[in-house]
């Protein structure tokens, strides 16, 4: 088990935490062709504090050894860390492309979907394992919608993590996977051929959402890593 943990930390320290400075994302400002708008920057530190408080609260409800439960829950962590490293590199490269270009917006769409359906969902599964073990329940999150609904459920009480779950829109993933996204001049239009489901998002709002999701996921993983280091 010690060797496995050492692998986790080495992946995090060499490939994620030091690979790309957070300032590259946090200092990004969205530009509009006719004017600049000032967007409130998402706070990495606030997301970390939120995740710390939730993990501490979960730990406080354990009657058995929390360290054993945590180690049993994080088997997917190396895969998550490698994936977020790849997506962050793609995001930084996408930011270098011309504003309003098709290539840039296609790349942001793909990054958002990967962050949601792979990294967010795997993090939700880790939390489901931790919370489920408190009452000896097995919680299976089969898909992205399950993950969103679980973390935002009032049934979890103070263990809910809606601040993370609210950053993910399953319909964006569904539209991308079913080729139902029209990339227009300055916005995405989803489900254009289904009037009852159609909605649109400006490129600037969508890019901000993708950046915020990236920051939130990195914050959660930072909190999780610190929790692991704290208990071993």
Helix content: 55-70%
- Overall pLDDT score: 84
Radius of gyration: 18 Å
Number of strands: 3
Kindly list the characteristics that best describe this protein.
mainly alpha; 10 helices; 63% helix
Structural write-up:
Strand 2 (187-190) and strand 3 (199-202) form a beta hairpin. Helix 5 (77-95) runs antiparallel to helix 6 and helix 6 packs parallel to helix 10 (203-231). Strands 1-2-3 form a three-stranded antiparallel β-sheet. It has helices at 2-17, 23-26, 44-60, 66-73, 77-95, 102-134, 144-151, 162-165, 170-177, 203-231; strands at 181-183, 187-190, 199-202. The protein is mainly alpha-helical and 232 residues long.
Short description:
By secondary structure, the protein is mainly alpha-helical.
Architecture blueprint of SSEs:
Blueprint: H1 2-17, H2 23-26, H3 44-60, H4 66-73, H5 77-95, H6 102-134, H7 144-151, H8 162-165, H9 170-177, E1 181-183, E2 187-190, E3 199-202, H10 203-231
Antiparallel strand pairs: 1-2, 2-3
Helix pairs in contact: 1-5, 3-10, 4-6, 5-6, 5-10, 6-7, 6-9, 6-10
């Amino acid at each position: 088990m010690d060797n496995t943990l050492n692998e986790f930390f080495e992946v995090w320290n060499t490939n994620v935490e030091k690979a790309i400075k957070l300032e590259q994302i946090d200092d990004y400002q969205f530009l509009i062709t006719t004017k600049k708008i000032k967007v409130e920057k998402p706070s990495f530190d606030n997301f970390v504090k939120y995740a710390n408080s939730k993990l501490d609260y979960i730990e406080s409800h354990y009657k058995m050894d929390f360290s054993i439960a945590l180690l049993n829950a994080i088997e997917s962590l190396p895969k998550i860390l490698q994936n977020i490293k790849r997506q962050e590199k793609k995001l930084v490269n996408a930011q270098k492309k011309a504003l309003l270009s098709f290539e840039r917006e296609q790349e942001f769409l793909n990054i958002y979907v990967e962050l949601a359906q792979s990294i967010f969902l795997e993090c939700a599964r880790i939390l489901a394992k931790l919370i489920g073990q408190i009452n000896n329940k097995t919680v299976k999150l089969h898909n992205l919608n399950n993950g969103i609904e679980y973390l935002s459920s009032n049934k979890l009480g103070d263990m809910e993590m809606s601040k993370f779950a609210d950053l993910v829109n399953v319909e964006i993933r569904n539209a991308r996977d079913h080729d139902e996204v029209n990339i227009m001049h300055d916005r995405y239009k989803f489900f254009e051929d289904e009037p009852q489901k159609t909605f649109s998002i400006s490129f600037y709002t969508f890019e901000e959402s993708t950046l915020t999701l990236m920051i939130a996921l990195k914050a959660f993983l930072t909190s999780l890593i610190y929790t692991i280091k704290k208990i071993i």
